[in-house]
Amino acid sequence: MPYYPRAMCRTSSATDDFMNRIRAHSLDDMPAFAAFARADRSPARKADAVAAEIAGAAQLADLRPAWTDLLARADAPNVFMDPALVCSAAENSTTPIRALLAWRSVEGRRQLAGLWAFAVGRARKSVLPFEVLNIPVLPFWYLATPVIDRNVLEETLEAMLDCIAADNSLPKIISLESMGEGATLDALTRVLAGRNSAPLVFERFNRPTLASSLDGKAYLENALSSSSRKKLRQHRRRLSEQGVLTSVVASEPEAVRCALEEFLALEASGWKGQQGTALLCSDSNAAFMRAGVGAMAEQGRASFHSLRLDGKAISMQLVVRAGTAAFTWKTAYDERFRDFSPGMLLLEDYTAALLADERVAFADSCSHDDSGFMSAWTERQSVTDLWIDARRGNSLEFRFLGNLQKIYRDLRAIAKSAYLKRHPSRAK
User: Fold this and answer.
1) DSSP state of 44
2) What is the pLDDT of residues 73-126, one digit of tens each?
3) Nearby residues of 192 by Cβ (< 8 Å), 6 or more positions away
4) SS3 400
5) What is the pLDDT of residues 341-353, one digit of tens each?
6) Residue 68 vs residues 14, 310, 357: alpha-carbon distances, Å
7) 222, exposed or middle or buried, with CB in 10 Å at 0-12, 13-18, 19+?
8) What is the helix (H) or strand (E) element at residue 120, kind and residue range?
């Protein structure tokens, strides 16, 4: 039975029930620690050629050429690490937002080896009263994976963790929501093993992605059943009987800005507006979207797909790009037309458009899991929520607080599941 000092218990606002439950669990029962025990514990390579620094928004503003170059070498592109979005978030938030920048010298030239942005604040999906480094920066960003040169993954991660550990002003616990599984996460696991710092995994889930050599028609014929395709054709025909039905893509900067205002209003008109979670319900979120999406549009990396009836949008999808990856970031539809499946009709249209776009190698749905309408995409990306400790060694504080957080998240997941059973339309 693990021992937790009373003084450490006083730092948490956990209920007695939480404490009783955590005492009943051995750390050896946690899946993340079992996985860690099996990991290769050979020492991580020293980051001799890589140096990391903590940067603010001002430094990121001048990073565009280096970022574009990094994307061509990156193991995993992530639009939610884009300097344009991180800068916009920093300028429109009261939460401290920073970025880890890793540099290496290549033939005497300074080259960006990695970028990992974070926000300092209370852990999300938590009641624990202490600060962590939250990645991604905002709650409605959907990928925590750092963008790192594929040739120096371990060296860069080692340097980044050492940089955080050495900064006395920063928390040492890093909360990663939706960390993509793949070479970068594998490298992080090896680095943590070499530092004797076990990660704590809370949840793994599969996210729909789009990666196919088929054209839109062939892909959808394979992805959707004949009955589903027939029903969608009926919906499209019935909508056409009510007016002129068109599918429109806005990609020029001014057109994107206009479409964004339409999107914000459309989202706020539905249940998100009623709950107060729509982007337009928060001045800072709305300001961030206007600045961030506007900047992306100026760089040719943001577009809106919309399904319109007599010129008015009944469904909209925001798509942003990083390198050869597209991200279907935000979606909204007119709930008065829910019986016609406007979101699914639009998915047919932008699926075909993305598959036809030679600039796009794959698309990330930005879905929490594969239970929503985007599960029509047949490819899957595994994503993980976890906490890690930037310090070397097996920190008792990290183990205690992490296990307390796991119990809370498990209880929260039970409550969420019950809620979604009563409100299935809000599962997207």
Assistant:
1) P
2) 999 999 999 999 999 999 998 899 999 999 999 988 999 999 999 999 999 888
3) 36, 39, 198, 199, 388
4) helix
5) 999 999 999 999 9
6) 44, 39, 19
7) exposed
8) strand 109-122
Number of H helices, E strands in the chain: 15, 13
What does the domain layout of the chain look like in residue ranges?
6-206+381-426, 212-360
**Is the Cβ–Cβ distance between 318 and 304 less than 8 Å?**
yes
pTM over the 0.90 mark: no
Which residue, 152, 198, 205, 149, is CA-closest to 178?
205
Contact 349, 343 (CB under 8 A): no
Distance CA 378, CA 384 (A): 19
- Residue-wise pLDDT tens digits, 206-233: 999 999 999 999 999 999 999 999 999 9
The residue type found at 413 is: A
Neighbours of 292 (CB within 10 A): 23
Let me know the angle formed at the C-alpha of 111 by 361 and 60, rounded to the nearest 5 degrees. Answer: 80
Over 50: is that where the pLDDT of 47 sits?
Answer: no
Write the CB contacts of 241 (distance below 8 Å, at least 6 apart in sequence): none
- Strands 325-333 and 362-364, by their bridges, are parallel
Using CB atoms within 10 Å of the CB of residue 108, give its burial: 0 to 12 exposed, 13 to 18 middle, 19+ buried: exposed
Q: Bridge partners of 33?
A: none
Instruction: Give the strand pairing for 302-309 and 362-364.
Output: unpaired
- The arithmetic mean of pLDDT across residues 313-340, rounded, is 97
Q: For position 126, what pLDDT does the model report?
A: 83
Task: Give the fold, CATH level 3, of 212-360.
Answer: Aminopeptidase (3.40.630)
Half-sphere exposure of 346 (CA within 13 A, CB side): 28
Contact 387, 202 (CB under 8 A): yes
For the cut 60, the answer to whether the pLDDT of residue 323 exceeds it is yes
Q: Are 78 and 145 in contact (CB under 8 A)?
A: yes
> 3-state class of 212 per DSSP?
coil
Structure tokens at 109: 């030239």
Q: Which residues on neighbouring strands pair with residue 270, listed in sequence order?
A: none
Cβ atoms of 156 and 114 within 8 Å: the answer is yes
